[in-house]
Write a structure and sequence with these properties.
GO terms for molecular function: 3-dehydroquinate synthase activity; metal ion binding; nucleotide binding. It holds the Pfam family DHQ_synthase. There is one protein chain. By secondary structure, this protein is mostly helical. It has 2 domains: 126 residues, Rossmann fold (3-Layer(aba) Sandwich), CATH 3.40.50.1970; 180 residues, Up-down Bundle (Dehydroquinate synthase-like, alpha domain). 47% of the residues lie in helices and 8% in strands. The longest helix has 18 residues. The protein is globular, with a radius of gyration of 21 Å. It starts with 35 loop residues before the first helix and ends with a helix.
């Protein structure tokens, strides 16, 4: 398949053996559009029985109702719950929802993740969490069931709009700020090129043996995420570095759906924490300015201009957060207005 849109969902299992009778040995779901024919040809050539079911995998539809629709399709199709994995190909919502459905069907059916967005590539594809939104809260319902495998292919990013690349770069910047100064310097120095090249391999002056900036950034982002998640896979310890940028962002993101992408909401939250860290003397003015400049260079904050009531909402939530973290709550509004609008 040459390209794929965010939100694609696919499920499949083993090919039908030539000696077997007619039965369902594979299930494939997806919102493939013009690519559905290519996918169908691929499976037919390999004699894999399959089904394609379009699903609306957006944050607004990330619900138990969507999980139920998936489960009904799985049940009607028929699948061996131990030997035939469900394959989910798509963005983070897709991977989370299909993962939850797989964890529920007959108490656990194996599934495989194939992320097609940069955010899903460095975030949702790593770890064991699945989930859906509930009662107005982001990912309030879910499970901890790791996939049987995760397959990574950065060529999917070529089909994405630039804003989706920025959305993923926001998550990479989070890990850089928490875990890896080298990744921050890489994003700071090469951010524009990475953004416009859509995280595809870049030419290097050191020849083929030298890792290019895009490949290095993707690798480090995933490695740092794995380092942080692996010792605490089931989240027994809730003091987690990967939750940086998640103080106000979950509620903010849900309140203004579909205005803000996840990475944009996280970056707004991170910018607030950068300001708090500076006022508490934990960051110098130069460090603060470098971080904000990097965010703006990666266009991670572009979504802040898209909602007419956004300024009042972020100010209210920022005041609430800062009242717990800093004595200088009111001044954040002026700083945010100068730097984020």
């Amino acid at each position: 398949m040459d390209s794929c849109q965010p939100g694609c969902v696919h499920l499949q299992s083993r090919p039908v053996p030539k000696h077997s009778g007619p039965r369902n040995d594979s299930l494939l779901w997806g919102h493939l559009g013009s690519h559905q024919r290519a996918v169908t040809r691929y499976f037919e050539a390999r004699e894999v029985t399959h089904k394609i079911l379009p699903l609306p995998t957006t944050e607004e539809n990330k619900s138990l109702e969507l999980v139920t629709a998936i489960l009904e399709a799985v049940h009607q199709f028929g699948i061996d719950r131990r030997s035939e994995p469900i394959i989910a190909i798509g963005g983070g919502v897709c991977l989370d929802v299909v993962g939850l459905a797989a964890s529920l069907y007959r108490r656990r059916t194996p599934y495989i993740r194939v992320p097609t967005t940069l955010l899903a590539y460095v975030d949702a594809s790593v770890g064991a969490k699945t989930g859906v939104n509930f009662a107005g809260g982001k990912n309030k319902l879910g499970s901890y069931v790791p996939p049987a495998a995760t397959l990574l292919d950065c060529s999917f990013f070529q089909t994405l709009p630039q804003r989706q690349i920025s959305n993923g770069l926001a998550e990479m910047l989070k890990m850089a700020l928490m875990k890896h100064s080298g990744l921050f310097r890489l994003l700071e120095a090469n951010g524009k090129e990475l953004l416009f090249a859509k995280m595809q391999p870049l030419e290097t002056s050191g020849g083929a043996k030298q890792e290019d900036a895009a490949s290095a950034a993707r690798r480090i982002a995933i490695e740092t995420m794995l380092e942080e998640l692996a010792p605490n896979l089931w989240e027994d310890d809730l003091d987690r570095l990967v939750d940086f940028g998640h103080l106000i962002s979950p509620e903010l993101e849900m309140r203004v759906l579909p205005t803000l992408l996840h990475g944009e909401a996280v970056n707004i939250d991170m910018s607030l924490m950068v300001y708090v860290a500076h006022t508490k003397g934990l960051l110098t003015a130069d460090e603060k300015d470098r971080i904000i400049a990097c965010m703006l260079g990666l266009r991670c904050l572009c979504g802040t201009r898209l909602h007419p009531s956004f300024g009042a909402e972020i100010s209210r939530r920022a005041d609430e957060a800062l009242s717990r973290l800093s004595e200088d709550a009111s001044s954040y509004r002026d700083w945010a207005r100068r730097n984020l609008s």
